[in-house]
Amino acid sequence: MDSVDSKDAEKAVLTKLGGIRDRIDAIDNQILGLLSERAHCAEEVGETKREAGEKNIKFYRPEREAQILRRVTELNPGPLAGERVTAIFREIISSCLALEQQIKVAYLGPAGTFTEAAAQKHFGQAVGTLPFMLISEVFREVEAGTADYGVVPIENSTGGVISHTLDRFVSSPLKICGEIHLAIHQNLMNKTKDMSGVTRIYSHEQSLMQCRDWLDRNYPGVARIAVASNAEAARLASEDPKSAAIAGENAASLYDLKIISPHIEDSPNNVTRFLVIGKEDVPASGNDRTSILISTHNGSGALYHLLEPLKRHGLDMTRIESRPAPDTHWDYFFFMDLNGHISEDAMQAALAELDDEAEYIRVLGSYAKAIL
Ligand SMILES: O=C(O)C(=O)C[C@]1(C(=O)O)C=C[C@@H](O)C=C1
């Protein structure tokens, strides 16, 4: 191609791009107009809720949000992935909710942890988030009303259950208002991107466990040091060139660290489940889970008697965990997750029978199942 031809070709590309960009500008104008219209609707919803003057007005409606997100994901014609569409609509709803009320969400910190990422995934960027260093502090802040909701980890697909969270439910009056599933990607990071002089790798014990095989293969001689959180690990690595950290991308950008090896978790399906805790009961969304806390007398067939009514009423139990009771009165508490909502007939009938059978039973919450 001579230079005249190549100039013509370049011009043609620019003309074509210019045309497409004009279309994008026109679409953006429409999106902006529609966003503004939606935001006005949210303001109207807020005013209507205020006018209704209920004592405990619920501006945040997790069941409604779940329905919206499921609907748009189902309708999504592509080519954007469902997960991307959900994330975009989450932010729209988050910004609309902020027009109604500024809610505060406490989470297991510090900033840069996966729990922060989970809180942002669920509530969007327009809510105020407050980090606390202990799971019990997150519960306390919500119980005291300093925060409206809390986000705490409950289980990881590799590391198992987070017993601090389960145990806290035994003494707390709080309810479970939602769940969040977050794909966890662990990354090896340090200040220089050079591992030659590194003698220590810091991380949370759960993260070290999730990367154990990878570390055995790649850094068998480097000491692994468990610290309070991944973010703390990143902070330590940012202050010491002889150390590295295993943490999420949030922590890398927060502490200005460079990622040496991304996605080093042993299991490609490494997911952590988080719970949203609050003071309210959540109405049914159409695809819900119910968590209960139950204890029974010790004795032969005790657990069978708890499970039998569930089977008879056709309820699926998706998880059962046992924890020792904090006093000697009962031996064990069981945490059960059941498919369905407390307002459904089968659930009510089964729980009424369990109430007769059990020493103690409490519904921790019925809430929408996690969305993407
Ligand atoms: O439908 C409501 O109740 C609203 O407040 C509107 C809206 C939304 O933007 O769609 C905002 C916040 C709620 O958590 C749920 C939905």
UniProtKB/TrEMBL annotation:
Q: Return the Pfam families for the record.
A: CM_2, PDT
Matching InterPro entries: ACT-like_dom_sf, ACT_dom, Chor_mutase/pphenate_deHydtase, Chorismate_II_sf, CM_dom_sf, CM_II_prokaryot, G/b/e-P-prot_chorismate_mutase, Preph_deHydtase
The protein's site described by Essential for prephenate dehydratase activity is found at T272
Asked if the Swiss-Prot or TrEMBL record annotates the protein with the keyword Amino-acid biosynthesis, the reply is yes
Q: Which domain of life is it from?
A: Bacteria
Spell out the GO cellular component terms annotated for this protein, sorted alphabetically and separated by semicolons: cytoplasm
Single GO MF annotation: chorismate mutase activity
Spell out the subcellular localization from the entry. Answer: Cytoplasm
Q: Could you say which residues form the signal peptide? A: none
Please provide the Gene Ontology terms (biological process) for this protein: chorismate metabolic process; L-phenylalanine biosynthetic process
Start and end residues of each Chorismate mutase domain = 11-104
Q: Which UniProt keywords apply?
A: Amino-acid biosynthesis, Aromatic amino acid biosynthesis, Cytoplasm, Isomerase, Lyase, Multifunctional enzyme, Phenylalanine biosynthesis
**Protein name per Swiss-Prot or TrEMBL:** Bifunctional chorismate mutase/prephenate dehydratase
Species whose genome carries this gene: Leucothrix pacifica
